Amino acid sequence: MRILVPFDDSRDARHALHEACRILTPLDELIVLASVVVPRHLPADAPPGEVWKQTCRAEVHLASARAIVGRITHYGDALQCVRVQATSLVAAVVAGATFYEADTILLVARANVRGRVAAFFGAPAAIVRQASCDVRVLYKVTPRRAQRLRDVQAIIDVSTTRPCVATPTGPGDEAISRGSPSRGYEGEGSYAT
Questions:
Q1: Helix or strand or coil: residue 83?
Q2: Bigger pLDDT: 87 or 156?
Q3: Mean pLDDT over the full length of the chain
Q4: How far apart are CA 64 and CA 61, in angstroms?
């Protein structure tokens, strides 16, 4: 399977690359794509330095991706770093996926309102519509929201793992609180959590 990861050295792109390395097997191939976006209406007398600057930036991003993959996985021969020049990021990703025959494109989006809107109207939605292969969008939770989710989970865990304590409800139920097995098995008394 060929997994394509658009990489621009942002935090989200690094998360996508980490996830791709996590699911990578020895038979898979990882394609890291850096895009060089050239405006459609670039004047003919435009200095070549502008395009060259973006090309150099893309090469720096690819070098960073090689270092990240080298630290995470030992399948170095399955890594292919490519640079694609197009008029937009979406066009670069779709062209790269088509040319390199990718089976899956791996993207990361934030799990907030902005990320949800972008999933319907932004670049991920355009890539999903135009790509000829599967697109996997990973929704990343911000650290603050993750901490809130962990706090809620801790409250749920504490409330469900608290041991049941037998409390005496009447004059003859004192044996339950002292731990008498015969009274506990008879089902008398009230059990409170």
A1: strand
A2: 87
A3: 76
A4: 5
3-class SS of residue 25: coil
Q: Where are the alpha helices (DSSP H) in 31-180?
A: 48-72, 89-99, 113-121, 123-130, 143-161, 174-178
pLDDT tens-digit profile of 181-190? 444 444 444 4
Query: In degrees rounded to 5, what are phi and psi of residue 189?
Result: 95, 175
Token pair 């996830």 is found at: 19
For residue 156, the number of C-alpha atoms closer than 13 Å in the C-beta half-sphere is 6
Helix, coil or strand: residue 34:
strand
* Chain segment 61-80, per-residue pLDDT in tens: 999 988 888 888 776 678 88
Strands of the 2-6 sheet, one edge to the other: 79-86, 29-37, 2-6, 104-110, 134-140
Contact by Cβ (8 Å): 4, 31: yes
Q: How is residue 114 written in tokens?
A: 């902005």
pLDDT at residue 100, rounded to an integer: 92
In this predicted structure, what is the pLDDT of residue 154? 65
- Domains belonging to the chain, first-starting first, are 2-144 (3.40.50.620), 163-193 (no CATH)
Backbone angles phi, psi at 80, to 5 degrees: -130, 120
Residue 84 bridge partners (DSSP) = 35
For the segment 20-41, what is each residue's pLDDT rounded down to a tens digit?
A: 888 888 888 999 999 888 877 7
For residues 80 and 3, give the distance between their C-alpha atoms in angstroms, rounded to a whole number: 10
Beta carbons within 8 Å of 175's beta carbon, 6+ residues apart: 182, 183
